[in-house]
Amino acid sequence: RCSVSSTRIGHEQIRLASGGANRGITISSLKEADQLAFILGFGGYVPDRIMTNDDWAELVDTDDEWITARTGIKERRFAADDQSTLDLAAHAAEKAMEDAGLTAAEIDEIIVATDTPEAYTPDTASFLQHRLGCREVPAYDLGGSGCAGFVQALDVARARMLLQPKRILIVGVELISRLMSWKDRSFCVLFGDAAGAVVLGPEDGRAELLDVVAGTDGSKTEILTLKTGGTRYPFNAESLASGAYQHLDMDGRRVFREAVHRMSTAVEDLLENTQRTIDEVALVIPHQANKRIIDAVGHKLAIPEERVYINVQDYGNTGSATVPFALWEAKETGRIRPGDLVAVTAFGAGFHWAAAAIQF
Ligand code: UT7
């Protein structure tokens, strides 16, 4: 295991680890016990338009049987033509602020995790700050880390709160249907559009962020990459003609293996850091890319199926939105109850992974 960072706010120690969860530098008593990170509110949004597997079968050479057997996905939601990433993000953010009982004026920082931003420049967070009517607070995107972005943002936000207790709005959002190729059956059937959000704050809220672990293995950039558009492979007439700018290079089987390994190991690291056992975890919420990946993570963690959250059948892979949307949905539908320990875990292009322990 490598590159594990672990920072426990308000508790005895902070580990700055590289090379293993238990081999880091320990700095004691940096913060007093009252400076904790709580999730104060949750929000989620999916567009109304439903795209079923049969709908896809009319457009590309696929069928419901293949998609269901290989991925578990039955349908996904796609944004309306007049919606953009900002619209999805704003819906989820407004719900999270309302759930937290906070107005936009009370938000001190904004982080948006997305790989399908409102514009190439500036970032989605700039648009969102203005749309929500927030003060002139720091706002920035975490982009390019695929589906791990939201959980990485939890890690960043928690570290920011170490310096100064504040209320941080974090949104995970993707509007991938607008940017992907609708002709490439090997990945168009996998994705959907959605947004999820949380508000973090220092007040005693309904869910304490106990710990976050995160890591990166940059030797595997090639297994999941949309190359075109950067300086290495600039967007040009040739990439436009070939469609390369919409083509996700994905070694599906390697991504699958890495995803299972990294998401389950990250949860094990969390349990070690927080001195909990898997039996104490009421619900694991893994990134929703593929039901087979989720089942394999549950199997590796030796946790019964009913304690693993799955909604990939309804929404497909919504990138950075899967984890915050699932958190919101699980809470709304009573799958998470007061007192529950919840572990969220995600992976993404990079290859990145991140996981968080949340005590409700
Ligand atoms: O954020 C993105 C994260 N990405 C992932 O999480 C992907 C992880 N990997 C996976 O989920 C799986 O690898 C896939 C679902 C992408 C693919 O499943 P697989 O069992 O690994 O299938 P495969 O790639 O080995 O493809 C098997 C066959 C191929 O045909 P041949 O070469 O065996 O004749 C594909 O051309 O399935 C074919 N195929 C399809 N057939 C019907 C690929 N896509 C489709 C499709 N419909 N949509």
Structure in words:
It is built from 11 helices and 16 strands. Oxa(dethia)-CoA (UT7) binds next to helix 2, helix 6 and helix 8. The site of oxa(dethia)-CoA (UT7) has 20 residues, from helix 2, helix 6 and helix 8.
The whole-number mean of residue pLDDT values reads 91
Low confidence ranges = 1-34
Described by the principal axes of the CA atoms, the overall outline is globular
Helix/sheet category: alpha+beta
| Strand-residue proportion | 15-25%
What is the count of helical runs?
11
The helix/strand series, from N terminus to C terminus, equals: EEEEEHHEHEHEHEHEEEHEHEHHHEE
Give me the side-by-side strand order of the main sheet: 8-7-9-10-4-11-16-15-14
Oligomer: single chain
- Mind summarizing the main beta sheet? 9 strands, mixed
Bound small-molecule species = oxa(dethia)-CoA
Summarize the entry for a quick read.
With 360 residues, this protein is α+β, with helices and mostly antiparallel strands. Helix content is 31%, strand content 23%. It contains eleven helices and 16 strands.
Question: What order do the helices and strands come in, and which of them pair?
Answer:
Layout: E1 6-7, E2 13-16, E3 25-28, E4 38-45, E5 49-52, H1 53-57, H2 64-71, E6 75-78, H3 85-100, E7 109-113, H4 124-132, E8 139-142, H5 149-163, E9 168-174, H6 185-188, E10 194-201, E11 207-216, E12 224-225, H7 237-242, E13 249-250, H8 252-274, E14 283-286, H9 291-301, H10 312-315, H11 322-332, E15 341-348, E16 352-359
Parallel strand pairs: 7-8, 7-9, 14-15
Antiparallel strand pairs: 1-2, 2-3, 4-10, 4-11, 5-6, 9-10, 11-16, 12-13, 15-16
Helix pairs in contact: 3-4, 8-9
The chain binds oxa(dethia)-CoA (UT7).
